[in-house]
Amino acid sequence: MKITLKSWPEKVEIADNHDYFNATDYIPVKFNRTDDALRWLRPHIAEALTMKKLRQLLASENISHTEAMSSQQVIQKVAELIFQGKLILVKTSLMKIQPVIIEYTKKAAPVEAAPAAPPPQTQEPVIEPEPEEEDNTDHAAQAETLKSAAEEGAPFCEECEKAKQQNAA
Fold this sequence. Notes:
2 domains; 5-stranded mixed β-sheet; two-stranded antiparallel ribbon; 7 strands; 17% strand
């Protein structure tokens, strides 16, 4: 079974078998960790049709009760199977037209064609994990500080205080 997750400008598909793809037209995507695959799949959790297709794909892998699984559980299981190599994630570029470079200057500049496309990659791309930012802010304490400063008439920033003093003078 093969499903399409995204269709433009690059086609992204997941399949349970390499036979679905022509070896010269696709590049399988490998992840270093299950979490990397999970992070890549997570944006699709809100797409009802995609989640239905992912459930069908899991069912084709003899995973039972996929309809009873939460969307998060479905995404987690698909990520595990992609990482294990039991499911294949493939990207195919649909952009076959070469871009034209146009330079805008005071004089009309000649239009140059872009260089020929490089040959297809022979190495499988590795998607690096995006660093996750941690929010260590104590929002309740911050809100309390701002409230008490407002009640006391204390300035919130240097710029505001300077402007206030200049206006008073």
